[in-house]
Design goal:
254 residues, alpha/beta, 7 strands, 14% strand
Length: 254
Amino acid sequence: MSLFNLTGKVAIITGSSRGIGKAIAERMAEHGAKVVISSRKPEPCADVAAAINKARGDGTAISIPANISSKDELKHLVDETNRQLGKVDIVVCNAASNPYYGPMAGIEDDQFLKILQNNVIANHWLINFAVPQMIERKDGAVIIVSSIGGLRGSPVIGAYNVSKAADFQLARNLAVEYGPHNVRVNCIAPGLIKTDFAKALWENPDTLKRATSGSPLRRIGEPDEIAGAAVFLASAAGSFMTGQALVVDGGATI
C-alpha cells in the first residue's frame, strides 16, 4: 500500500474553493480521500466539488460552505460532515484573511482583531470541534496552512505575519496535547504562491522580481506545489511528524 494512500479518509479543507485549499482538496481526492469543500460563498464550493466528482466519481467531494469568522458555522461544518460522510480524519485549516496592507502603525484595531480571529482563533475553534472524534479513534491529522511570513518581519504584512507565527505555536501546543492520542498537528509554511490571496505581492512585475530575486529557485510557487506537502502530512508517510512547520518556499528563507 502506498505511503500516501488516503483511501477511506475524510478531509475537511477550509478555503478550498480556490488557490492552495483547492489544490489540496484535489490532490487528497486523487489519493483516495473524501473531501469537504468549504469557503464562505456556496457557489464556488459547489463548483469545485462538482469538478472533483466528475474527475473522481460521485461522492468523492461534498460542499459545505462556512464563514471561518463564525463559530456556529464551523461547528455546523463538522456536524454536517459527520452526517453526510461519517468520521472526520483530516482537518486542513487553510482559510485566512488579511484586510490590511501597510505598516503596523497604521492598522485599525478592528482589522488587527479580524486577522487574529480568522487566522488563529478560528483554527482553534475548528480543530476543537473535530478532534474529539479523532481522540476517540486514536487517529487523526490536523494541518494548519501558515506562512513563511511567520518566520520573518515585513513592512507591509506585519499583522498577518504575527498571526502566522501564532499558528506555529498553536500547532506545537496542540501536538503536545493530542500526541498521546495519536493525533498529529503540523503546519505548512508556504512562500510566495500564485494565488488571488497573495496578488498584491506578485501582480506587479517589479514587486515580483524583488520577491523572487533572492530565492534559489528564482520564481513564484504554484498552489499545487503545496498540495503534496499536505498529502504527506495527512498520510502514513507523515505518521511520525507532529508539531512541525514544513517550509515550502523555493528556498527563500535560507
